[in-house]
């Protein structure tokens, strides 16, 4: 299935954007789609061959899931390739536009259960929440 690409431009330096994207103390603050969701746990062994495990759930605890996988490749301040536990590939690229502007591009293989558009909207909602968190903190 054809990968889905989303991107966003953040008005902060690439070093800060990179740190906030991969640091568990920040991940728990932005890694969810809407205010009725949260990310109570984020664990990451940030190295090639390392793993990550993020817990996303409704605040009322009625539903939740783990978003986890393995880190395949890291190019510092450039991109990270991962493979999710279900085998889907995800690549996140960080493009330095200038000293205070960074573009984040996510390319991910969609899963079969939900429509491409629903997945694009969901992943973009999380990326937009990340963008607002980085710019406001």
How do the strands and helices of this protein lay out in sequence?
Elements: E1 4-10, H1 14-22, H2 24-30, E2 37-44, E3 51-58, E4 64-75, E5 79-84, E6 89-98, E7 101-108, H3 116-136
Antiparallel strand pairs: 1-7, 2-3, 3-4, 4-5, 5-6, 6-7
Please sum up the structure shown.
By secondary structure, this protein is an alpha+beta fold. 27% of the residues lie in helices and 43% in strands. Helix 1 (14-22) crosses helix 2.
Which structural class best describes the helix and strand composition?
alpha+beta
Q: From the alpha-carbon coordinates, what is the Rg to the nearest angstrom?
A: 14 Å
> Count the helices. How many?
3
Report the helical percentage: 25-40%
What kind of sheet is the major sheet?
7 strands, antiparallel
CATH H level: which superfamily?
START domain
Low-confidence stretches: none
CATH class: Alpha Beta
CATH architecture: 2-Layer Sandwich
Please list the strands of the largest sheet in the order they lie side by side. 1-7-6-5-4-3-2
Number of domains: 1
Q: What pattern of helices and strands is seen along the backbone?
A: EHHEEEEEEH
For the termini, the CA-CA separation is 37 Å
CATH level-3 fold name: Alpha-D-Glucose-1,6-Bisphosphate, Chain A, domain 4
Strand tally is 7
Mean pLDDT: 97
> What would you call the shape?
globular
| Beta-strand content | 35-45%
Protein name: Activator of Hsp90 ATPase homolog 1-like protein
Domain Activator of Hsp90 ATPase homologue 1/2-like C-terminal: 13-135
InterPro entries: ASHA1/2-like_C (IPR013538), START-like_dom_sf (IPR023393)
Pfam family, one: AHSA1
